[in-house]
Design a protein that fits this description.
Elements (H helix, E strand, L loop, with lengths): L1 H8 L14 H9 L18 H12 L6 H17 L2 H12 L5 E4 L15 E5 L2 E11 L7 E7 L8 E7 L5 E5 L11 E11 L3 E2 L5 H37 L1 E2 L2 E2 L4 H29 L5 H25 L11 H13 L4 H13 L8
Parallel strand pairs: 1-4
Antiparallel strand pairs: 2-3, 3-7, 4-5, 5-8, 6-7, 9-10
Helix pairs in contact: 1-3, 3-4, 3-6, 4-5, 4-6, 6-7, 6-8, 6-9, 7-8, 8-9, 8-10
Bound molecules: flavin-adenine dinucleotide (FAD).
C-alpha cells in the first residue's frame, strides 16, 4: 500500500483536484490491490479483511492521495451492509461487481433538511406490489457523480429512526438525477445531490427489514469514523515527514530551521497528537474486530483525527513559508481535503455529543 501510494498516487494527487475525472481503470486497479473488496466475502471475490487491515490501507493510501481512501470507506460500508442484509439475488448480482471494481455503490443518508439529525429524513420508499417507489432528495453524497447504485435510507414505516429502512437503488433508472457540487476539497469524489423521482425498485432490493435501516447506518459510522481518522492521520504524517526534511534543508539566520526550537517543537507537538489519534483509531478498529463496544472510541477518533490533521497540515504550510502556500506543493490541497471529513460522517459537535452520551448515559443528553 505504501509503495502504491508513493509510486502511483502521490504524483497524480493534484491532477484529480483540477477537473480530470478519476478514470474507471484506476478503480479496477484498486480492486486488484484488494481495496474494493475489503469487506466482501471470499465466495464473491472479496478479501475478507479485518477492520484493522482496512485502517492500515486507509492510512497508507492517504499518504499518496487522501481522496482515494474514499473508495476504501464506501466499499467497506457497501460490502458490510450488502453481505449482512441483502437478499441472495442482490448479493449475487452486486457483491462480485463491487469487489472487482466494476460497480461503485454510494451511501445516501443525508438530505437537504436532515444531516446531524438523520432520523428526521423525509425520503420515502412506498410499497407497491412487489416493489418500492422511492421519492426524495439526498444531499452531499460522496461519489454522486460516478456511482452505479446507492444504499438509500428512506422512510418505510412511520416516524423517527424506527421508521427508516434501506434499499439498494441502481442509478440507471430515468427517475434518478444527479447534481455535482463545486467543493472546497475532495473534488475527485464528485460529491453531490441525488434526486429520486418515483424510482421503482424491486422489493428484493430491500436491505434488512423496514425498520432496520437507521441501525445499519449507525453501525457503519461506528467503524468508518476510525477509518476517517486514519485517512487524516496518513495525510498529516506525510506532510510532517516532508516538513521534517524541508526543515533540515532550509536555512535562516545561518542555520537549518530545524535548529530553531520554534520550528522543531511545533513538529514535535504535531507528531505527538497525530500518533495519539492513530492509536485511538486502531484501538477502535481492534475493538470492532473483537466484537466489543466501540461507539465512544469511534467518536473520539473522528473528533481528534481530522482536527489534529488539519492543524498539523496548516502548520506545515506555515513552516514552508511562501512555498507552502503555493499550489505546486501538496499542503493546501491536503488541508482542503481533510476539512471535508471534519464534517462528513458527523461533525465535531456531534462527536462530542456522542462521547458525552456514552459517558453520562442517555438520560443526561439531548442527543439520543
Ligand atoms: C466531504 C463530505 C462527504 C460526505 N459524504 C456523505 C455521504 O457519502 N453520504 C451521506 O449520506 N452524507 C455525506 N455527507 C454529509 C454529512 O454526513 C453531513 O454533512 C453531516 O452529518 C452534518 O450534517 P449537515 O451538514 O446537514 O449539518 P447540520 O446537521 O445542519 O449541522 C449544522 C451545524 O450545527 C451543528 N449541530 C447540529 N446539531 C447539533 C447539536 N445537537 N449540538 C451541537 N451542534 C449541533 C453541527 O455540528 C454543524 O456545525 C458528507 C459531508 C461532507 C462534508
Amino acid at each position: 500500500m505504501r509503495r502504491y501510494a508513493a509510486d502511483r498516487l502521490r504524483p497524480e494527487y493534484a491532477r484529480y483536484d483540477r477537473g480530470t475525472p478519476y478514470p474507471r481503470e484506476r478503480i479496477r486497479e484498486l480492486a486488484e490491490l484488494g481495496i474494493t473488496g475489503l469487506r466482501v466475502p471470499g465466495e464473491f471475490g472479496g478479501t475478507e479483511a479485518t477492520y484493522v487491515m482496512g485502517g492500515i490501507a486507509a492510512e497508507e493510501l492517504a499518504r499518496g492521495d487522501y481522496n482515494v481512501t474514499l473508495f476504501i470507506q464506501l466499499c467497506m460500508i457497501a460490502g458490510d451492509i450488502l453481505s449482512g442484509y441483502a437478499s441472495s439475488a442482490v448479493k449475487q448480482q452486486w457483491l462480485p461487481k463491487l469487489a472487482s471494481g466494476e460497480s461503485l455503490i454510494a451511501f445516501c443518508l443525508t438530505e437537504p433538511g436532515a444531516g446531524s439529525d438523520a432520523a428526521a429524513l423525509t425520503t420515502t420508499a412506498t410499497r407497491d406490489g412487489d416493489s418500492y417507489l422511492v421519492t426524495g432528495e439526498k444531499a452531499s453524497i460522496t461519489f454522486a457523480g460516478m456511482a452505479d447504485a446507492a444504499i438509500v435510507f428512506a422512510r418505510m414505516s412511520g416516524k423517527g429512526a424506527r421508521g427508516i429502512g434501506a434499499l439498494l437503488v441502481p442509478f440507471d433508472d430515468p427517475g434518478v438525477s444527479r447534481r455535482i457540487y463545486s467543493s472546497l476539497g475532495e473534488r475527485l469524489s464528485q460529491r453531490g445531490s441525488v434526486t429520486f423521482d418515483g424510482v421503482r425498485v424491486p422489493a428484493e432490493n430491500r436491505l434488512g427489514d423496514e425498520s432496520g435501516g437507521f441501525i445499519q447506518a449507525m453501525t457503519a459510522f461506528d467503524y468508518n469514523r476510525a477509518i476517517i481518522a486514519l485517512c487524516c492521520v496518513g495525510a498529516a504524517q506525510q506532510s510532517l515527514d516532508e516538513t521534517v526534511e524541508y526543515a533540515k534543508q532550509r536555512h535562516t539566520f545561518g542555520k537549518p530551521i530545524a535548529k530553531h526550537e520554534g520550528v522543531s517543537f511545533q513538529i514535535a507537538e504535531h507528531l505527538t497528537l497525530i500518533a495519539a489519534a492513530r492509536l485511538l483509531a486502531y484501538q477502535c478498529l481492534t475493538l470492532r474486530d473483537r466484537g466489543l463496544p466501540h461507539t465512544k472510541e469511534a467518536a473520539m477518533a473522528k473528533w481528534l483525527g481530522p482536527k489534529a490533521a488539519a492543524e498539523a497540515i496548516h502548520a506545515c504550510i506555515i513552516l514552508h513559508g511562501w512555498t507552502g502556500y503555493d499550489q505546486d506543493m501538496p499542503f493546501e490541497q491536503r488541508l482542503r481535503d481533510v476539512i471535508g471529513l471534519e464534517i462528513g460522517d458527523g461533525t465535531p459537535e456531534i462527536m462530542k455529543a456522542i462521547i458525552a452520551r456514552e459517558t453520562f448515559g442517555r438520560e443526561f443528553t439531548a442527543y439520543k
